[in-house]
Design a protein that fits this description.
single chain, about 375 residues, alpha/beta, Rossmann fold, seven-stranded parallel β-sheet, two-stranded parallel sheet, 13 helices
């Protein structure tokens, strides 16, 4: 209980820290990026967002629903364009940098491996190059957000620690492993003796309202539920560390704030749920069906030949918990319930900006309210 209270107090302190800070975010219009911008606008931060131009539907719908665009200075371009990225970065002159931009899907990485590596590796090089070239003499905190899939996955039953070998299998996972290595190299080669603090954060699978992506289990569930169809599950026995999207975002905010104040905290951190929230895909879908109601059900999809995907993956988050007294707020069942709450509000044409604000406030208060 004491750790929980400390975590709640830390969230309040975080919002105070970011008030008035200038924050540069790549991938600000994506799933995580939109939620992060929403939190930061509520905190009173000045946000500069850099993302690819949004196409109709998909994530554009979520970005528009969030109501954040009028509170943000945006540049719609590609992280592979160093000149454009550098110009916008210098205009922002940020206090804090969150690098979220990526090609984020495993299956897409098999069909577009070159684009995946260009975006996830060279995009990181370009962000770090902007940081390196910056002439600002003020403290800057940089966080590169990667994935739990960066590890050489041997399908162990215990969680991977930050000192385990990095060697993702598929092009997406491997490109994010490379992104980690790029970050470490820039940190050691150019930034170790500067006022710039750099960390990486390796998060597990996230769920939450507003994810309209293809080939993700919860968005697929929502689409099926809205059409009153049976959910088809591709890999019901694969085990993943599922968490609500607000869980890693608060961890990112915490890491960036702490290392801004004390560079000794700059490191690599796993960000995941407790062991009890590492569930199979089938169990996750079962929780979704229960939360949705209306007799919603699921079945295993017909077996078809498909690219390799890991069957078991867990994280050991002891470093994050021990360093910052960080604790997850919502267990997986609560995360699913909040996702369903968002989707049903969307179905009934509610004001989704307000729905997001209420969920952020409930999370910050450590309750389901």
């Amino acid at each position: 209980m004491e750790k929980w209270r400390a975590a709640m107090e830390t969230m309040v302190e975080l919002l105070r820290f970011y008030k008035g800070k200038t924050v540069f975010i790549t991938g600000h219009s994506g799933f995580k990026g939109t939620w992060l911008c929403k939190i930061l606008t509520m905190a009173g931060a000045k946000i500069f967002g850099y993302s690819l131009p949004l196409e109709d539907g998909g994530m554009k719908a979520f970005y528009d629903l969030s109501g954040i665009d009028s509170h943000i200075t945006s540049c719609w371009n590609d992280t592979r364009d160093l000149k454009a990225l550098s110009s916008f970065y210098n205009q922002a002159d940020p206090d804090v940098v969150f690098h979220l931009s990526a090609q984020p899907l495993v299956l897409d990485s098999y069909t577009r491996p070159v684009y995946t590596y260009e975006t996830n590796v060279m995009g990181t090089v370009h962000v770090m190059e902007c940081v390196r070239r910056s002439h600002s003499d003020k403290p800057v905190s940089v966080l590169n957000v990667t994935t739990d899939k960066v590890y050489e996955n041997k399908e162990w039953e215990w969680g991977y620690r930050e000192n385990e070998p990095l060697d993702g299998y598929d092009p997406y996972s491997n490109s994010k492993s490379c992104s980690e290595l790029v970050t470490h190299s820039y940190k050691r080669s150019f930034l170790s003796q500067t006022h710039i603090a750099v960390s990486t954060a390796r998060a597990g699978n996230v769920i939450g309202g507003g994810d309209f992506a293809d080939n993700r289990i919860i968005p697929d569930c929502i689409r099926a539920a809205l059409q009153n169809k049976i959910i088809h599950v591709r890999n019901p026995y694969s085990t993943r560390p599922y968490q609500h999207v607000l869980e890693p975002l608060y961890a990112y905010l915490l890491i960036a704030a702490k290392q801004y104040e004390e560079r000794q905290y700059a490191d690599s951190y796993n960000v995941g749920p407790d062991d009890c929230d590492c569930v199979t895909t089938g169990e996750l879908v079962g929780l979704f069906c229960k939360a949705w109601g209306n007799g919603l059900n699921w079945k295993t999809a017909a077996i078809v030949e498909q690219p390799h995907e890991a069957g078991l993956l867990k994280l050991d988050c002891s470093r994050l918990k021990n360093t910052f007294q960080w604790q997850p707020v919502w267990h997986v069942d609560e995360a699913v319930e909040k996702t369903v709450e968002w989707a049903k509000a969307y179905e009934h044409n509610e004001n989704m900006a307000i729905v997001m604000e209420k969920q952020i406030q409930a999370f910050g208060n450590g309750n389901k309210g």
